[in-house]
Fold this sequence. Notes:
By secondary structure, the chain is mainly beta. The chain has helices at residues 37-47, 139-144; strands spanning 18-25, 28-34, 55-62, 75-82, 87-91, 98-106, 112-117, 121-122, 157-158, 164-165. The strands form three sheets. Strands 3, 4, 6, 7 and 8 form a five-stranded antiparallel beta sheet that branches. A three-stranded antiparallel beta sheet has the order 1-2-5, with no helix packed on it. A two-stranded antiparallel sheet has the order 9-10. A hairpin with a 5-residue loop joins strand 6 and strand 7. The N and C termini lie far apart (75 Å). The model is unreliable at 162-175 (pLDDT under 50).
Amino acid sequence: MSVTVPEYGFPASYNENSVMLLVRDPHCIFTYWEISNEQMDLVAGEFGRPWGEIQLTLRVYDLTGLGEDRNKAHGSYDLNVHSLANNYYITDVKANHSYCADLGVFSPDGRFVCLLRSDVIQTPRDSLADGSGLVMADLLDRLSGKKPAEWPTEQETFSSDGVYINSNNNDSEED
Protein backbone atom coordinates (compact mmCIF):
# COMPACT_ATOMS: atom_id res chain seq x y z
CA MET A 1 0.00 0.00 0.00
CA SER A 2 1.41 3.42 -0.88
CA VAL A 3 0.41 6.67 0.73
CA THR A 4 0.77 9.99 -1.04
CA VAL A 5 1.80 12.79 1.26
CA PRO A 6 1.21 16.31 -0.02
CA GLU A 7 4.19 18.64 0.01
CA TYR A 8 3.98 21.73 2.16
CA GLY A 9 6.09 24.84 2.11
CA PHE A 10 6.24 28.34 0.88
CA PRO A 11 5.54 29.05 -2.78
CA ALA A 12 8.43 30.36 -4.88
CA SER A 13 6.39 33.49 -5.54
CA TYR A 14 2.99 34.99 -4.81
CA ASN A 15 2.77 36.77 -8.18
CA GLU A 16 2.31 40.15 -6.48
CA ASN A 17 4.01 43.52 -6.72
CA SER A 18 5.84 44.61 -3.57
CA VAL A 19 9.17 45.89 -2.29
CA MET A 20 10.17 45.73 1.37
CA LEU A 21 13.02 47.25 3.35
CA LEU A 22 14.30 45.57 6.52
CA VAL A 23 16.96 47.02 8.79
CA ARG A 24 19.86 44.61 9.32
CA ASP A 25 21.96 46.97 11.45
CA PRO A 26 22.61 50.75 11.72
CA HIS A 27 24.61 50.73 8.46
CA CYS A 28 22.88 48.11 6.32
CA ILE A 29 19.35 47.62 4.96
CA PHE A 30 18.11 44.42 3.33
CA THR A 31 15.56 44.91 0.58
CA TYR A 32 13.54 42.27 -1.23
CA TRP A 33 10.88 42.51 -3.91
CA GLU A 34 8.52 40.60 -6.10
CA ILE A 35 7.22 41.73 -9.46
CA SER A 36 4.14 40.01 -10.87
CA ASN A 37 4.29 38.19 -14.20
CA GLU A 38 1.81 40.70 -15.60
CA GLN A 39 4.04 43.65 -14.60
CA MET A 40 7.14 41.94 -16.04
CA ASP A 41 5.35 41.29 -19.35
CA LEU A 42 4.15 44.90 -19.50
CA VAL A 43 7.64 46.34 -18.92
CA ALA A 44 9.29 43.86 -21.30
CA GLY A 45 6.73 44.77 -23.96
CA GLU A 46 7.41 48.50 -23.51
CA PHE A 47 11.16 47.93 -23.96
CA GLY A 48 10.77 45.34 -26.73
CA ARG A 49 13.14 42.98 -24.92
CA PRO A 50 12.77 39.90 -22.72
CA TRP A 51 12.44 40.63 -18.99
CA GLY A 52 15.87 39.08 -18.27
CA GLU A 53 17.53 41.80 -20.36
CA ILE A 54 15.89 44.73 -18.54
CA GLN A 55 18.11 46.73 -16.16
CA LEU A 56 16.36 47.48 -12.85
CA THR A 57 17.38 50.36 -10.61
CA LEU A 58 16.87 50.61 -6.87
CA ARG A 59 16.63 54.32 -5.96
CA VAL A 60 17.30 54.92 -2.25
CA TYR A 61 16.04 58.14 -0.61
CA ASP A 62 17.19 59.73 2.67
CA LEU A 63 14.02 61.10 4.28
CA THR A 64 15.34 61.78 7.78
CA GLY A 65 12.92 64.12 9.55
CA LEU A 66 10.81 64.65 6.40
CA GLY A 67 8.00 62.12 6.63
CA GLU A 68 7.30 60.30 3.35
CA ASP A 69 7.70 63.03 0.71
CA ARG A 70 10.35 61.74 -1.71
CA ASN A 71 10.38 65.11 -3.53
CA LYS A 72 11.88 66.75 -0.43
CA ALA A 73 14.49 64.03 0.22
CA HIS A 74 17.89 65.08 1.55
CA GLY A 75 19.33 63.06 -1.30
CA SER A 76 19.01 59.86 -3.26
CA TYR A 77 21.26 57.46 -5.10
CA ASP A 78 20.75 54.65 -7.60
CA LEU A 79 21.84 51.02 -7.41
CA ASN A 80 21.64 48.89 -10.55
CA VAL A 81 20.26 45.39 -10.02
CA HIS A 82 19.61 42.55 -12.43
CA SER A 83 15.98 42.03 -13.37
CA LEU A 84 16.16 38.37 -12.29
CA ALA A 85 17.36 39.31 -8.79
CA ASN A 86 14.82 39.67 -5.99
CA ASN A 87 16.88 41.10 -3.11
CA TYR A 88 19.79 43.39 -2.35
CA TYR A 89 21.82 44.55 0.67
CA ILE A 90 22.04 48.34 0.77
CA THR A 91 25.26 49.12 2.64
CA ASP A 92 26.75 52.36 3.91
CA VAL A 93 23.47 53.84 5.09
CA LYS A 94 23.68 56.18 8.06
CA ALA A 95 22.62 55.30 11.57
CA ASN A 96 19.50 57.00 12.98
CA HIS A 97 18.22 58.00 9.52
CA SER A 98 14.98 57.37 7.63
CA TYR A 99 15.08 55.67 4.23
CA CYS A 100 12.75 54.42 1.53
CA ALA A 101 13.32 52.99 -1.92
CA ASP A 102 11.76 52.87 -5.36
CA LEU A 103 12.41 49.98 -7.72
CA GLY A 104 12.16 51.01 -11.33
CA VAL A 105 13.65 51.31 -14.79
CA PHE A 106 15.06 54.11 -16.90
CA SER A 107 13.08 54.92 -20.03
CA PRO A 108 14.95 55.30 -23.36
CA ASP A 109 14.86 59.09 -22.88
CA GLY A 110 16.56 58.78 -19.45
CA ARG A 111 13.56 59.26 -17.13
CA PHE A 112 13.30 57.06 -14.04
CA VAL A 113 10.01 55.13 -14.03
CA CYS A 114 9.03 53.75 -10.62
CA LEU A 115 7.55 50.24 -10.66
CA LEU A 116 7.42 49.60 -6.90
CA ARG A 117 7.63 51.84 -3.84
CA SER A 118 8.63 50.83 -0.30
CA ASP A 119 7.50 52.17 3.03
CA VAL A 120 9.82 54.43 5.05
CA ILE A 121 12.07 52.69 7.59
CA GLN A 122 14.31 54.05 10.36
CA THR A 123 17.82 52.74 11.00
CA PRO A 124 18.76 52.46 14.69
CA ARG A 125 21.40 54.65 16.24
CA ASP A 126 24.85 53.13 16.59
CA SER A 127 25.65 54.48 20.04
CA LEU A 128 24.53 53.67 23.55
CA ALA A 129 21.97 55.74 25.40
CA ASP A 130 23.62 58.48 27.45
CA GLY A 131 21.67 57.62 30.61
CA SER A 132 20.53 61.19 31.18
CA GLY A 133 17.01 62.33 31.86
CA LEU A 134 14.27 61.08 34.13
CA VAL A 135 14.21 57.31 34.39
CA MET A 136 11.07 55.61 35.62
CA ALA A 137 11.27 52.54 37.84
CA ASP A 138 12.33 49.40 36.09
CA LEU A 139 10.56 46.08 36.31
CA LEU A 140 12.96 44.57 38.84
CA ASP A 141 12.46 47.42 41.29
CA ARG A 142 8.69 47.18 41.01
CA LEU A 143 8.75 43.42 41.50
CA SER A 144 11.04 43.74 44.52
CA GLY A 145 8.52 46.07 46.17
CA LYS A 146 10.64 49.22 46.26
CA LYS A 147 8.70 52.42 46.82
CA PRO A 148 9.10 55.56 44.65
CA ALA A 149 11.43 57.18 47.22
CA GLU A 150 13.81 54.22 46.78
CA TRP A 151 13.79 54.45 43.00
CA PRO A 152 17.09 55.40 41.35
CA THR A 153 18.31 58.95 40.94
CA GLU A 154 19.56 60.65 37.78
CA GLN A 155 23.15 59.54 38.48
CA GLU A 156 22.22 55.91 38.04
CA THR A 157 21.78 54.32 34.63
CA PHE A 158 19.94 51.30 33.35
CA SER A 159 20.62 48.72 30.70
CA SER A 160 18.08 48.10 27.97
CA ASP A 161 16.99 44.97 29.82
CA GLY A 162 15.98 46.97 32.89
CA VAL A 163 18.83 45.62 35.02
CA TYR A 164 20.03 48.11 37.62
CA ILE A 165 23.59 49.37 37.20
CA ASN A 166 25.03 51.85 39.70
CA SER A 167 27.23 54.26 37.75
CA ASN A 168 29.19 55.10 40.92
CA ASN A 169 30.14 51.42 41.32
CA ASN A 170 29.29 51.57 45.03
CA ASP A 171 28.00 48.35 46.49
CA SER A 172 25.45 48.87 49.21
CA GLU A 173 24.75 46.35 51.89
CA GLU A 174 21.21 45.31 52.55
CA ASP A 175 20.04 45.03 56.17
